[in-house]
Amino acid sequence: MRWLLILIISVFASTLSAQPARPRVYYVVLKDAVINPSLHDFLQRALEEAKENEAECLVVQLTTPGGTVESMQDIVRLFLNSPIPIVVFVAPRGGNADSAGAFIVMAAHIAAMAPASRIGAAQGSIPTSSGWLKATVAKWPSPLPTSRIGLGKASFS
Asked: What phi and psi, each to the nearest 5 degrees, are found at residue 149?
């Protein structure tokens, strides 16, 4: 009888000391990141590493002034075809995901924003020898409005 009591107490004590497994979350911080091919490669490696380590999701904290349309489209495709959920968090407080960054936020499985943060303000720019020339919408043919509509349908259907 004594050994049964000891067995019950030891089993009970071991269950109290056992901690449940914590979910594995991969977290990357992209502060003032320009959306370009290097950023796509970085996010692809982060996603592959998260998948290899059986992470439950990849959290991307993002602030960006925007970047190239081609890289944005590559990142959007990467997110839409991700085998694990991707959370994009526009932060810290007052952070921004402007221009191409807005599309990346919309492509995430979950989009979150810190207080006073913002997304939007896409305007085409043309690089010149003296800097960036802002193009007006009338002079800048863009596939982006239909991309935005397609992302909205993909996210909510």
From this structure: -65, -45
Residues in the chain: 157
- Domain span at 46: 22-120
Indicate whether 150 belongs to any domain: no
Residue 128 resides in a domain: no
Nearest CA to 75 out of 112, 54, 116, 105 is that of: 105
Domain count, the chain: 1
Rounded to 5 degrees, what are φ and ψ at 137?
-60, -40
Distances (CA, A) of 68 to 61, 106, 123: 19, 16, 11
| pLDDT tens track for 112-135 | 999 999 998 766 666 667 766 665
Asked whether residue 8 is domain-assigned, the answer is no
Q: What is the dihedral of CA 66, 133, 145, 154, to 10 degrees?
A: -20
Q: How far apart are CA 66 and CA 84, in angstroms?
A: 25
The answer to whether residue 148 sits within a structural domain is no
Q: Which of 57, 72, 73 is nearest to 111 (CA)?
A: 57
Cα–Cα distance for residue pair 45/63, rounded to 1 Å: 19
- For the segment 98-111, what is each residue's pLDDT rounded down to a tens digit? 999 999 999 999 99
